[in-house]
Description:
Strand order of the largest sheet of chain C: 10-14-15-13-12-11
Largest sheet of chain C: 6 strands, mixed
Radius of gyration of chain C: 38 Å
Number of helices of chain C: 27
Distance between the termini of chain C: 112 Å
Structural class of chain A: alpha/beta
Largest sheet of chain A: 5 strands, parallel
Radius of gyration of chain A: 13 Å
Shape of chain C: extended
Number of helices of chain A: 5
Oligomer: heterotrimer
Helix content of chain C: 40-55%
Structural class of chain C: alpha+beta
Strand order of the largest sheet of chain A: 2-1-3-4-5
Number of strands of chain C: 30
Largest interface: A-C, 27 and 31 residues
Helix content of chain A: 40-55%
Strand content of chain C: 15-25%
Amino acid sequence: MRALLIDDSRAIRRIIGDIMKSLGFEITEAIHGLDGLAKLEEFGIPDIVLVDWNMPEMNGLDFIKAVRADPKYVDLPLMMVTTETEMERLAMAFVAGVNEYVMKPFDKAMLVEKLEILGIGAAS
Amino acid sequence: MIASRQLCTFLLDGHLFGVDAQTVQEVIRYQEMTRVPKAPAAVSGLINLRGQIVTAIDLRTRLGMKPRENGKRPMNVVVRSDDGAVSLLVDQIGDVIAVDVENFEAPPDTLQGPSRELVQGAYKLNGRLLLLLNCAEAVQLVTE
Amino acid sequence: MSFDDAELMKEFVVESQEHLADVENQLLTLESQGDSMDVGLVNKVFRAVHSIKGAAGFMGLETLGGLAHRAEEVLNKLRTNELRPTSLVINTLLRAADQLKALLDQIETSNQMDVTPHLVALQSIMAGEEAATTTAVAIEPTSENTKFEIGISSEALREFLIESFDNLEQAERDLLALERQPGADDLLNSVFRSIHTIKGSAGFLGYLKAEKLTHAAESVLGSIRSGNFPFDESVSERMFTTIDAVRRILHSIESEGHEGADVTGELATQMEEFLQEKLSETPTKVPKRGRSTRKSASSKKAPVAAVTSSKEPTESVEARRAQPDPEVIVTPVKPTPVQANSPKIETAQAPEAAPKAPTPTRISPAPAGSASGSTESSASDSTIRVDVALLDKLMTRVGELVLARNQILQFNSTIDDSALHSAMQRLNLITTELQEGVMKTRMQPIGSVWSKFPRLVRDLATMCEKDVRIEMEGKETELDKTIIEAIKDPLTHLVRNTVDHGIERPEVRAQNGKPTEGCLILRAYHEGGQVNIEICDDGAGLNLGRIKAKAVEKGLMTLEQVARLADRDVGNLIFLPGFSTAEKVSNVSGRGVGMDVVKTNIEKIGGTVDLQSKPGLGTTIKIKIPLTLAIIPALIITSDSDRYAIPQVNLMELVRLEGEESRTSIEWIQGAPVYRLRGRLLPLVYLRNELGIPRDNSAKSEIVNIVVLRADDRQFGLVVDNINDSEEIVVKPLSKQLKNVSVYSGTTIMGDGRVALILDVMGLAQSAHVVTGTKERAVSDSNDRATTNNSNMQTLLVLGVGPSRRFALPIAQVTRLEKLAINKVERADHQEVVQYRGEILPLIRLSDTLGVEPANHPEGLMDVVVYSEDGRSVGLVVDQIVDIVETELINTRPAQRAGLTQSAVINGHVTDLLDLPAVIRMVDPSFFQSTLNV
């Protein structure tokens, strides 16, 4: 299974990437929204996209809007990685079309829970 | 369990010396050296050791002994120092032996001159005296 | 488990532990064997691990088996020579072995134990990465990290640390810039993002203290972003404090594996309280954050001592406007914080009153070097992090490649094959470019070291109640990474020292008519194969008298020694161990870090330090470090059948004297040999002499080889036995034992594998005294009125005028000897002149002046003795330049006519000594009076 990770922090990408890999995912990384869109084009549709909120160039919210505007990504599961401070704006993300959110920091178990909600089984 | 240490031994003007085997990188036969005019007297020259340039120090000179006889070629005991490898020129190589640390003695009073500072102590070995050389001091030719 | 199983298990454990007992020693031996690794030994270790793996599989010991399997993979690669027993590989295997032991010790629960870090580390080695941090750091869960288990990989931890340090630096830079432009949104956002990122990853890794601190800081910044209150001094102070605290935590994590006992909780609480305070202060919320206003009344309880605001703002605003300096990095630090922005914002009319910051450009002291500052957002995909160890390896390989190429080159010259030659050309080109490329990867701009200094200077200045600004020139000057590492500390110490001791307090400066703001200038540039770093200040300079006294007091020198010191050497006394002139060792400069340590550290990398000071005016510390450009072009020469290399950068030209010339062209002046090179006198140095090699009297060679070299601004000729070729050589540093021999600067391995020494041209020059040191005066072609050693010995230039008359004048009066074309002589204003070196040179024919019948006018060229004074020159035309002699003048007679001083017999001839000024005056009375006119 494949996952696209979008976050401007290398350390975070590594940490979340490690968790995903331990769940059996193959990881593609992007450093901001625009890059994320590029990677979608380049590598095709993954099983899940994890996207951060606060990024330069194009933030998470705009990324979600852009993805949802494109018919070929209509079924692509999008999961927002948020922090406490963004919770109050989460509604905006849902309106924009995100499927789920997970609050960081999270661990494997928490992530699995969220993935199951989305009907994505982790190959372990 | 007996506390022992391994020493690499060699001969200098008939005297038996040893250095900590752990400091010894390798032991090789005579190597062609490039002489270094104006270098301190104990520096015999420079050796190319697999691409590494190693300074060769003649221990006889360093210890204030008389020079080797003409024609006799020294062997190289290459030791590790904090500045890289250094080669100690000796007359002949001996075995690597284990000594019992409890048998360590102070250097004999008969030792004079430069030897005095460079010999840390001695071990009795089948009637012979094995002098422990202070490697770090021996390669230190220049006082900072 | 059945009885049999238990027995079996016990046996397995005992046996496995026996296997592992030897493994440790075997691994250590393998490491020390390095390249001469004993494959048999590897096999032993392999077999031990293999059998553990096998048995574990049978007994359902999954964790044990899994780990053993990974270790076995690595060992397999070792024994097939796909891997070498480097420290990294061995360390990882050792740790894996330790873990295996631990698992065996607790065999019943071994399956529940988490060995992920080991697996990851072994996996990394298999994948070819150089995972350098397989430390125990990442493995132990901290006491606070009981929130959950993620099994942090050491890679993730390393990323976190690297990135977080970077982010802290970036935040600092942005804050410094923000202090000068409080309204810059982009800067504020950037700081926010940096802090936010650290918070995020710290949270993931369970570093709660760091998370808490950054969260508090983030909240403050978020509030400012929302416009609740403006960014000001009180905010930036707290931000800096927070950054420092986070940095300490990161360092603690790096070295100890946990966040440390630092009481940061308080700090976080303080931040929260501060935030509350701020929020309650401003009654109205303003959409844009505060621009500075020309507010005369700022009545608020700003926590920081911003008391001066009441009357200052106008002045400061004006001052700011009058003082734009966009080019140079200037971080003005005032001891009393001048409130150019009042925390209280009144109305929206503020903007027009706001002074336009000189240039709203982003002021970041350090360029985005490869290791620092390049934030992810800026096309980070075009950069890549590489382990320095890997680059070192590459460098070594390239060096070996050059050696191998040199070896092949030797064959190239003996074999006559054009295809071979052109292939060699290509190989040459590629090697050179490769070498340059690899070298570049390790080069970093010195700015990456300097980037910390603005902040440092600011803090120090505040602490010392001084006013210091720092300027940096040449921060893009590149140095090898290892040098950068080595000079970090010495430079930091010197900067601290300058602020602490060098620059005076504002009152003192004002008293002495200096601007209250002290200036510290850092300068870096390449010159002559070295990197020069200067630290200049306009402070008080050194108190030479006090230094001398201190030196004597500390027993470092005797009174007599100190008295004999030249002023320029006194400064360097402070580098002696045991020296410290500060009245009190302030905790600013640090305890125990003396100037002598600075000097030692710099000398360790082959550099030199020199200190010059002018009391009352300032001090300049100059550091010179050789570039470790490992490969340089050099000329190979031979002396007494030993080869030596001379760096091309010092080489001016080669002169070869044969036969007659070799005997006559070398002259002796004041006991020193010289050669006349196109009219200039070149001092000669015999290499054999300098090296203490006896002259080879048997082979009376007809050939003299002179290598003309340049050291600083002096030139000299080095006489060698033979000149070989030019080659590119790999420079290896001198070993400790040889460092003090001044005539060598390094060693190299020649194409045939033999070692050769590289000559230090300056060292040679100094040891041969051809460079003005302290003793003998260099023999030069300048117009100095040389005094003679012996009162009667004189060096005279003997001239021939007419068929048989001899004249002489002191060589010191001669500027140059020339041969000029006769047909170039022109007449101008009753005077013969010739165009010479872009000037018009008046000519005086000695034959005319002295009433001597000239010799037959020769065709072509004429001998001219050029005399210069005060920028004016005149040429004396003679018929012959006979000789330069050193002679004692005896049996002299007073002169018979004007223009002469006396007559003497020189070399058997009656010779008249010229009174040159008189002769000139006879022809042109105005010569000595008029100012420069030629």
